[in-house]
């Protein structure tokens, strides 16, 4: 992760290297459109905020909110078994976050245990 100089905010920077990050120009156009949409989507506590996307000749730099805690994969790996209450709470939060995305006609294209923070 990194720290934004302007406000000290902890952020995650995902890097998409050029020129092979898109198969076609249409893929790039679609990604740019979706990214612009996400930049303007209303905030929700259960969805990491996309702050900005920077671009240079080598890559795109996607700057996102750093969410504290551990991901669900790590949690399950460490704990082994989890309680019914933990499961209910995690599912409630996940489904609420997905409902927020869907209510704005957005989908999560990489939903996996490693991308769910608990």
From TrEMBL:
One of its GO terms (biological process) is intracellular signal transduction. It comes from Strombidinopsis acuminata. The keyword Glycoprotein does not apply. It comes from the Eukaryota. The lineage of its organism: Eukaryota, Sar, Alveolata, Ciliophora, Intramacronucleata. It holds the Pfam family Pkinase. GO terms for molecular function: ATP binding; protein serine/threonine kinase activity. GO terms for cellular component: cytosol; nucleus. This is Protein kinase domain-containing protein. The keyword ATP-binding applies. Keywords: ATP-binding, Nucleotide-binding. SUPFAM superfamilies: Protein kinase-like (PK-like).
């Amino acid at each position: 992760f990194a720290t934004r100089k302007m406000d000290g905010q902890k952020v995650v920077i995902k890097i998409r290297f050029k020129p092979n990050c898109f198969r076609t120009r249409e893929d790039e156009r679609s990604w740019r459109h979706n990214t612009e949409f996400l930049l303007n989507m209303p905030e929700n506590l259960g969805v990491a905020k996309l702050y900005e996307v920077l671009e240079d000749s080598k890559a795109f730099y996607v700057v996102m909110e750093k969410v504290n805690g551990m991901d669900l994969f790590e949690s399950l790996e460490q704990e082994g078994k989890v309680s019914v209450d933990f499961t209910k709470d995690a599912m409630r939060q996940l489904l609420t976050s997905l409902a927020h995305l869907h209510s704005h006609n957005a989908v999560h294209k990489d939903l996996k245990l490693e991308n769910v923070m608990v």
